[in-house]
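[Meeting: bench + compute handoff]

Bench side (C.D.) handed over the final construct sequence. Compute side (W.E.) agreed to return the predicted structure before the next meeting so the bench team could plan truncations. Sequence as handed over:
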Amino acid sequence: MSAATESAPVPAPSTSAAELKSLQRVQSIPLVNDTLATLHSILAQNAYTAWPYAQATSISTSAYSIAAPRLQGIDGLANRGLDYVEGKYPYPFQTQTKDIYEDIQKGRAQIYESATKTYDARVRAPVAGLAHGADQVSALHVMPAATQSDSITYLDCADYYAICERHSDSL
């Protein structure tokens, strides 16, 4: 996320109606503010979404100016709810978006490292052991000839099976 996105406040509806403190508090949460700022930037600058976004903003501003005075009664209840949630889970209310992203990346790296170690121990090591044993058995069926030409003589199938049976306990 860019620094401009993280520091740009989301434009609040410009009305003369009383502001809802709970709405301001939710908008002041760094992750919410940065997300809304990014969306605002994308929607306002895109040629396909700029006009519909401007119309929706106008309609929502009108609706907010009508609804805000009527919602003042429950604003206090909403603030108490936010106080309770912030008391239980202060991390998202106080941590900047960049720090949350870095913490998620650290967790992802730890999970990847753990999965890699488990895979190596439970899959790769046993398969490597089997492959090594198979290499030893396959090396037994090719023996150098006792001739001057240094050619290689292959064992016939009966000899190969006999060797495999003798060495099967070593696998």
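W.E. noted at the follow-up: Residues 129-170 form one domain. C.D. will use this when planning the next construct.
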